[in-house]
Amino acid sequence: MNLTLKIWRQKNAETKGKIVNYSVADIEPDMSFLEMLDVLNEQLIMKGEEPVVFDHDCREGICGSCSLQINGEPHGPDRGVTTCQLHMRRFKDGDTITIEPFRAAAFPVIKDLVVDRGSFDRIQQAGGYISVNTSGNTQDANSIPVEKENADMSFYAATCIGCGACVAACKNASAMLFTSAKVSQFSLLPQGEVEADRRVLAMVEQMDKEGFGNCTNTGACEIECPKGISLENIARMNREYMKASVK
């Protein structure tokens, strides 16, 4: 395939960015989207030009770092996949593809297509942990009974990889889906009950401090989430927050 790429180029957070047009040829349909960008960068390096900076690590849909806005959609036109799992067979020969970083005030651009998602880390650090008894009188976790339904829901919430697609898809740049997933994975388990009230209050407070918008229940976050995190987690977090607030 021969493609035209319209890519956001930005030197750093302080400079103004712009869309730059590139052409790539002989792209195989079985290439991943990131492999296609690798081909482009090889061509740019051979010409003595600066390659396009984009984030990636595992390339297996696990780390969440490959987040890109592709033709206006987080992670591109496919569903249930991250950018590194998106294949070029989803596009046609001669297509024009617009590639941008995730857009949110809480995700400032570092360079080109890379954004700083440290805000997510700070939300988790505000309360995303459980107490561990190290007094010598510890209890085996396997001896604590957990209802299977709760265990399953906790597991599903824990599949969130923190990519930020929910924020990029939301018209308010809300982090409610991400934060609620991190709250839910602990609040559904008995081990998470010790810090439950403090956790939800601290994480929501940090989320607001980071400048994320509020939720308006449009559901775009769930649709674009590569792991299919449910909106039910937002409802659960709201209940947990209200309960903690009145105590």
Automatic annotation (TrEMBL):
Note describing how the cofactor binds: Binds 1 [4Fe-4S] cluster.
Cofactor dependency: [4Fe-4S] cluster; [3Fe-4S] cluster; [2Fe-2S] cluster
Pfam families to which the protein is assigned, alphabetical: Fer2_3, Fer4_8
Domain 4Fe-4S ferredoxin-type: from-to ranges: 151-181
Annotated PROSITE patterns: 2FE2S_FER_1, 2FE2S_FER_2, 4FE4S_FER_2
Gene3D superfamilies, per database record: 3.10.20.30, Alpha-helical ferredoxin (1.10.1060.10)
Catalytic activity: a menaquinone + succinate = a menaquinol + fumarate
Residue span(s) of domain 2Fe-2S ferredoxin-type: 18-103
Protein keywords: 2Fe-2S, 3Fe-4S, 4Fe-4S, Iron, Iron-sulfur, Metal-binding, Oxidoreductase
Protein name, UniProt field: Fumarate reductase iron-sulfur subunit
